[in-house]
Amino acid sequence: MANSIKPDAIRQHALTGGLFALLAAVGFSAKAILVKLAYVDRVDAITLLALRMAFSVPVFLAVAVWTKFHKSPTALTRHDWFAVLGLGLIGYYLASYLDFLGLQYISAGLERLILYLYPTMVVVLSAWLYRQSIKPRERFALLLSYAGIALVFVHDAGMRGSGMSMGALLVFGSALAYAIYLIGANHTIARIGATRFTAYAMTVASLASMLQFAVTHPLHDLMLSKRVYYLTLAMAVVSTILPAFLISAAMRRIGAGKTALIGAVGPVSTIYLAWVFLGEGVSFTQAIGSMLVLAGVLVISVRRSGR
User: Fold this and answer.
1) Which DSSP string corresponds to 92-157?
2) pLDDT tens figures, 94-152
3) For the chain, domain boundaries
């Protein structure tokens, strides 16, 4: 009887991990939709980002305190604190700010596809920093991904006109900032723990976002409609807090490779949500380009996770 229960428990564990990965991917992908909906009220990127972080930071502060008193963590050295500060500013503050700026110019679908290129950037940056050669399989994956982005970009440029290049460049910068963060974060995460590191880094990013708003905006700019506050609260809960913890829970249950595989739902989810809530059409060219991007990134992500 014990032997029959064990496989069921393992299967249930895997199903739960898969569900967590799916919900995280959809939650992350919903951010672009929420930002686009908020821009209808003519609110700027700095204000939106500050509100999103202001709603998020209490949770991450609470997690940081909880890990300190319940997990007997290793004491942070001066190097650890500098790493948390620098990586929090690059990976969560700068990457988010560039992304919010870029969404003023490009479609939600194109934004998610460009952001999804970050694993390819990790490959290229790692090869450059550590003097490693890029394997033929990875070169083919890079070719697929960037050919797909080129297809979608050319299509959207013909439909949308001015501002496309600026928006795509800003979102590409966001993906690059996140790739740099991932490369730099490995050692610190291994030392102090993923949950603790995420809580500290997100707190740094939140404080930076709110400070930027305080320096650049008068206080009365917070006199916004309830709709904007509801949307930014949803960004904080649905697209920031919950996915951050769901992705960690998924990786513990099913591993990084399968989590990355399920994460491919993210760009597809964004395109579908953009069609439903924003009225963004999906052409044959966009579909082909999206499939090329997903194929290339999955080849790299699953291969590297397996290693």
Assistant:
1) IIIHHHHHHHHTTTS-HHHHHHHHTTHHHHHHHHHHHHTT-PPPHHHHHHHHHHHHHHHHHHHHHH
2) 999 999 999 999 989 899 989 988 888 888 888 888 887 888 888 898 898 899 888 88
3) 2-306
